[in-house]
Amino acid sequence: MIEDLKCKEKKIAVVGLGYVGLPLALEFSRKYSVIGFDINEARVELMKKHIDPSNELPTEAFDGCDIQFTSKEEDLKQAQFFVVSVPTPIDSHNIPDLKPLLSATESVGKALKKGDYVVYESTVYPGATEEDCQPILENLSGLKMGVDFKLGYSPERINPGDKVNTLTNVLKIVSGCDAEALDTIAQVYGSILKKGVYRASSIKVAEAAKIIENTQRDINIALMNELSMLFKKMGISTNEVVEAASTKWNFYKVTPGLVGGHCIGVDPYYLTYKASLLKHHAELISAGRKINDDMPHYVANQIIKNINAVGKVLKESRVLVMGATFKENVSDIRNSKIFDVVSDLVSFGIEVTVIDPYASAEEVLRHYNHPLSSEPTGTYDVIVLATKHDDYVKWTEADYRKWAREPFIFFDIKGVYKNNFKDCKYFSL
Ligand SMILES: NC(=O)c1ccc[n+]([C@@H]2O[C@H](COP(=O)([O-])OP(=O)(O)OC[C@H]3O[C@@H](n4cnc5c(N)ncnc54)[C@H](O)[C@@H]3O)[C@@H](O)[C@H]2O)c1
Question: pLDDT value at position 370?
């Protein structure tokens, strides 16, 4: 396979060109001939013009790439090595929604030929590749996995907004249905990665490894969120406690916060779902999820209490929320928990202005039915620093105070300013 890819006798197809798929497809296309397939025609049109619809990559990232962007399923037939990187979200009941994954698998199944490889990158519960996807590939192609085509799984570790731990700079897990598949998949991926690959012993091990990376983080943040609520009652600062505890050599430093986005707040639900199918109640993982999902309501409640405490009327109060994206310095607003805080405040008649230098006003309105303002207007009873964007953490106390009414109530959710403001009712998690 690798030799045929090198001389461009064979092609790689990347199915699903989002945060994960596009950088991967471009990286492959510096060495190999690539078909970049996505069902979203508008996104494909942008990519043809060298524009990353997810706003992560500059135009130059497309330079010198041998890639054909397409939304025509038919074009997949030209490829022999398929990589699937479509979304794996949850539904409104926190149940895995495998529709995009299964539909992408159908597209690949129709294009599959003898000798081909299919590697999944989407985050799934252990077993999804072999139990949910493999039968579709076999049915639609009439081929037998392991004999006629090979299967693999290689989880993605990219971290949006992180310019250090990029696709090529981190060790990547690869796995395959047998030794030959593992070898080939390791060679193909290894050829584009500076840090190389880690060969997992099986597809299920690789699937499980990915999901526990995020589950571990979710649970650790949940612990800190629980401690934050407790320490608030004790009148001590969680950030100061964490700083002190971090002086121990084996203390794992994690800070409290809102857990949004499409990975940490979603992936553990894939694991709890699979656990429930096996009649196992994943108690700790579920508890962590519940704490983190409830955190926006706790924050909103604290804001409301503080407004009440200074004798102000909720319906006449104004709150400025700075930051709409789920994490700093990215434009991604998917599953941003800030809007749970906003909707709680709005339900009490509070006027809320949301600003963000990265988010798209159109997307915010579409997803959360709340306007995104370009700048603050007038003055506010509470200012909430929700996302640690570089543009905001440069602000001094005087910069915030310009927009604040007295008494100045400042909710620094991530504790950026470490309670260093004078004459201010300061709150952090
Ligand atoms: N974004 C991250 O930081 C990150 C990190 C690690 C793992 N992951 C995982 O990688 C997977 C992809 O995530 P993402 O953030 O890149 O998603 P995304 O929403 O940014 O992009 C997915 C792309 O897939 C396309 N798509 C949807 N259904 C399709 C189909 N049937 N056929 C072809 N294209 C289809 C969409 O149009 C979109 O362009 C998910 O499983 C996610 O959990 C994401």
Answer: 97
Mean per-residue pLDDT, 274-280? 97
Residues 176, 182: contact at Cβ < 8 Å? yes
Q: Is the CB of 70 under 6 A from ligand 1?
A: no
- If pLDDT is split at 50, 70 and 90, which confidence band does 158 have? confident
Q: What is the pTM of this model?
A: 0.93
CA nearest ligand 1 atom 31, residue: 104
Mean pLDDT of 372-383: 97
- What domains appear along the chain, each with residue ranges and CATH number? 2-201 (3.40.50.720), 221-427 (3.40.50.720)
Q: CA torsion sign, 53 to 56 to 62 to 67?
A: negative
Distance between Cα 38 and ligand 1 center (Å): 10
Mean of pLDDT values over 9-24 = 96
Give the dihedral of Cα atoms 408, 398, 350, 411; nearest 10 deg: -70
Q: Which of 411, 151, 367 shows the shortest CA–CA distance to 262?
A: 367
Ligand 1 contact via 40 beta carbon (within 6 Å) = yes
Mutate-to-test residue for ligand 1 from 15, 20, 55, highest number of ligand atoms within 8 A of CB: 20
Confidence band for 423, pLDDT divided at 50, 70 and 90: confident
CB contact at 8 A, 96 and 28 = no
| 168 has pLDDT over 90 | no
C-alpha 101 to ligand 1 mean position (Å): 9
Residue found under tokens 């009439």: 142
The SS3 call for residue 243 is helix
Q: What angle do CA 306, 311, 315 make, to 5 degrees?
A: 80
103 CB near ligand 1 (under 6 Å): yes
pLDDT, position 56: 85
The residue to which tokens 């085509």 are assigned: 149
Asked if 12 contacts 23 with a C-beta cutoff of 8 angstroms, the reply is no
Tens digits of residue pLDDT in 36-74: 999 999 999 999 999 999 888 999 999 999 999 999 999
